């Protein structure tokens, strides 16, 4: 057996799990695994949440392991929701407590992985109500709040997904089953995602209005789902 060579993002120290003896592998505040991974989930096919359903990434980079460590911030978010209409995404959120809290960043992503800040809202104090709106020309987008306290610590809210739904007959897919190519017809530029039967995202692409030809020769045989504009269609790769 050849030698094992350590590369980036590998650790050889105590990971400081909460209670490894009893099977609790969540990270403690002293864990060297915190923010020790890659900056985002791009290309990793691990989804946007950890094993407990918490958002990846909670800090400046992915935490190594099955769980993200989330520091407790002095802000309690009660609700965060959004609605899309006339190419504008509107949001509202409410807080219960905001001790030593500084501001919110409304962040947006077109792939659910890489986010950028589109609005900043200053804290108002306990039991506050907030609203914000941004232009959304994309057919679908993901949003979250980055909540930052006065010490620079932060955490993220749940992700809100906003989409402009299409009628089912606006998203035909053919041939089906298919071996080499599928054709997808859409009425406007749309972010299209393909998932395998296990729910793992295998491809993301931006399609233009009209008929788009997609090369599927590299996909293994099996069932897949195309998700675009709120619609989900199944196809079989022969």
Automatic annotation (TrEMBL):
InterPro entries: Choice_anch_Q_dom, Ig-like_fold, Pectin_lyas_fold, Pectin_lyase_fold/virulence, Secre_tail
Domain of life: Bacteria
Organism in which the protein naturally occurs: Arachidicoccus ginsenosidivorans
Annotated protein name in UniProt: T9SS type A sorting domain-containing protein
Secretion system C-terminal sorting domain mapped to chain residues: 173-238
Classification via Gene3D superfamilies: Immunoglobulins, Single-stranded right-handed beta-helix, Pectin lyase-like
Pfam families: Por_Secre_tail
């Amino acid at each position: 057996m050849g030698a094992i060579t350590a590369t980036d993002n590998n650790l050889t120290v105590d990971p400081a799990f909460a209670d490894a003896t009893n099977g609790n592998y969540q990270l403690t505040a002293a864990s060297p695994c915190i923010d020790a991974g890659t900056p985002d989930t791009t290309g990793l096919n691990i989804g946007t949440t950890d094993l407990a359903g918490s958002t990846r990434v909670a800090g400046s980079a992915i935490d190594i392991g099955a769980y993200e460590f989330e520091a407790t911030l002095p802000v309690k978010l009660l609700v965060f929701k959004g609605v899309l209409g006339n190419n504008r995404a509107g949001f509202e959120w409410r807080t219960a407590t905001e001790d030593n809290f500084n501001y919110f960043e409304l962040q947006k992503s077109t792939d659910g992985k890489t986010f950028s800040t589109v609005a900043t809202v200053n804290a108002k104090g306990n039991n506050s109500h907030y609203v914000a709106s941004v232009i959304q020309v994309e057919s679908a987008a993901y949003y979250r709040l980055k909540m930052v306290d006065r010490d620079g610590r932060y955490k993220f809210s749940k992700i809100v997904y906003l989409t402009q739904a299409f009628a089912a007959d606006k998203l035909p897919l053919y041939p089906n089953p298919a071996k080499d190519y599928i054709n997808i017809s859409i009425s406007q530029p749309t972010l299209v995602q393909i998932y395998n039967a296990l729910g793992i995202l295998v491809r993301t692409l931006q399609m233009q209005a009209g008929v788009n030809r997609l090369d599927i020769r590299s996909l293994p045989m099996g069932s897949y789902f195309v998700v675009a504009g709120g619609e989900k269609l199944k196809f079989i790769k022969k």
